[in-house]
TrEMBL record:
Pfam families: DDE_Tnp_1_7. This is PiggyBac transposable element-derived protein 4. Residues 17-120 form the PiggyBac transposable element-derived protein domain. InterPro entries: PGBD.
Length: 121
């Protein structure tokens, strides 16, 4: 049900594939401040804005242009937390890239992610 509420905005966000980023791409999470009512509003105590909507973002490091963004809508409907979610997000975000340098912070970093990205070169 959560996907149905985002179907129009999700198509808009995937339209960003038209832009070709430079050789350096950064993957990170971003919290856009939002205090209204929303099923997938997140609480992140270490961020300046504590409440908001969480996005996964892949940006071109040279121009700071967001190449692709995905909205995090919370736990799957099964109710169990997804394992290796960070790895899946990075791989989804850089799916169309070959020969690029991918940079991400320690939240996403894992040995298995490095091995998988190495296979895709």
């Amino acid at each position: 049900m959560k996907f149905l509420r985002l179907c129009h905005s999700q198509q808009l966000l995937y339209a960003l594939y038209v832009y070709n980023p430079s050789e350096n791409v950064t993957v990170d999470e971003r919290l856009y401040a939002f205090k209204g009512r929303c099923q997938f509003r997140q609480y992140m105590p270490k961020k300046p804005a504590k409440y908001g909507i969480k996005f996964w973002v892949a940006c071109c490091s040279k121009s700071s242009y967001a190449w692709i963004m995905q909205i995090y809508t919370g736990k799957p409907s099964s109710g169990t937390r997804e394992k290796n979610q960070e790895m899946r997000m990075v791989l989804d975000m850089v799916k169309g890239l070959k020969g690029h340098n991918i940079t991400c912070d320690n939240f996403f970093t894992a040995y298995s992610l490095g091995v998988e990205l190495k296979k895709r070169i």
